[in-house]
Amino acid sequence: MEQGFVDTLISPEGKLEVLSKAEVLKLLDTGKGGLYKTFRQCALAVLNCGSTIDDGKELLDRYQSFDINILQRERGIKLEIKGAPAIAFVDGKMIKGIHEHLFAVLRDIVFVSNEVTDNPKFDLSRTDGITDAVFHILRNANVLRPQTNPNLVVCWGGHSINRAEYNYTKEVGYQLGLRALDICTGCGPGAMKGPMKGATIGHAKQRFINGRYLGITEPGIIAAESPNPIVNDLVIMPDIEKRLEAFVRTGHGIIVFPGGAGTAEEILYILGILLHPENAEIPFPLIFTGPASSRDYFAQINEFIGLTLGEEAQKRYKIIVDDPESVAREMQEGIKQVREYRKARSDAYYFNWALRIDEEFQRPFAPTHENMRNLKLHKNQPVHVLAAHLRRAFSGVVAGNVKADGIRAIEEHGHFEIHGDAAIMEPMDRLLASFVAQSRMKLPGKAYVPCYRVVL
């Protein structure tokens, strides 16, 4: 099934029916300044949903004949698709959720290019300019709901997890759904799919018909984490940093399930923000959880955080093992505190403007060999700044593992070298080694070849 190819012609359903000639030309421009490469890559990843590929380069190589064109008709646009993965179709017809995701990709790529990147109104060299851009991308995607009480739970975790961990994420999602809490994830498989799947059952039992399953991704990672069709709101942010900011600005609390380097990156991102002195009083529920078999995993994560960021960082989260009901109740109570805090200050429920996010967490990090070597991984700096550099280190490992450009860089120049103080490098090396031993770097059945070398 996965190896099959399908040609088709599809129309949008009520969204993005009209594009200007200039927008179409830009999307179909294969040159350096065009958007076609990004558009094709994201469209192929969406159509590859349910596949066992988590390697951006492998996906592009397998479907070299895949092509997607925009046809302008008097009544609007159509997408002409050639060589699409058969997995996206049932009895020859495209799955509706995937159909919607294709036009979400088109919407976001057009908007970001025309209204953000090429718009002098957004000063992307300033922290407030970047936050404003994140807000506008989310608003254009219609995912900000002003009349809704806080109830959006962000779920982070690995795309490569074992069956016990996956089932646990579904059970937590189910308990959240029973409490009418909505789910936001990175929208891919594993710990990103499980909570949504569980929540759909909880919502159905409570006759909660407006359940939201928000997926936030970005072009570099989408091939490794193809959006699952449960997602009913998909947003493509322009880079990983804006994706992470979108999570913490829109979510009212975060649950972290077991994962690999990408999950460690997310943990370091949120801890770095919460450790900023200006964010000390802002309530933000953060829970690490997994089944009984994951107890050692979280013990090691907790130890790593203690050794690198210290006890203050450890106070910003709770670890709850093998108790989905407690996780859901704790999150529900934490979100009540968020609501009370924002209500008392007349803050928006739908976007966390009050949270201070420094430029260190916003500036896009290109994981080149030089940039990875030059990371400042030492303790002679504010702890939230150290967290930002540690986040980049793990981001580089993710790029070398699954992103097409990162994989090519490793093939061409060899391993990323990560330098720093021994007090940081040794626990980092142990943590990464445990991810490899537990098969958290790649999907099951694939041998993992490290893309990095920790230099002690």
From TrEMBL:
Highest taxon listed in the record's lineage: Bacteria
Gene3D superfamilies (alphabetical): 3.40.50.450, MoCo carrier protein-like
Enzyme nomenclature, EC number: 3.2.2.4
GO-annotated molecular function: AMP nucleosidase activity
A GO CC term assigned to this protein in UniProt: cytosol
Annotated ranges, domain Pyrimidine/purine nucleotide 5'-monophosphate nucleosidase N-terminal: 9-115
Catalytic activity: AMP + H2O = D-ribose 5-phosphate + adenine
InterPro entries linked to this entry: LOG_fam, LOG_family_nucleotidases, PpnN, PpnN-like_sf, PpnN_C, PpnN_N
Protein name (database record): AMP nucleosidase
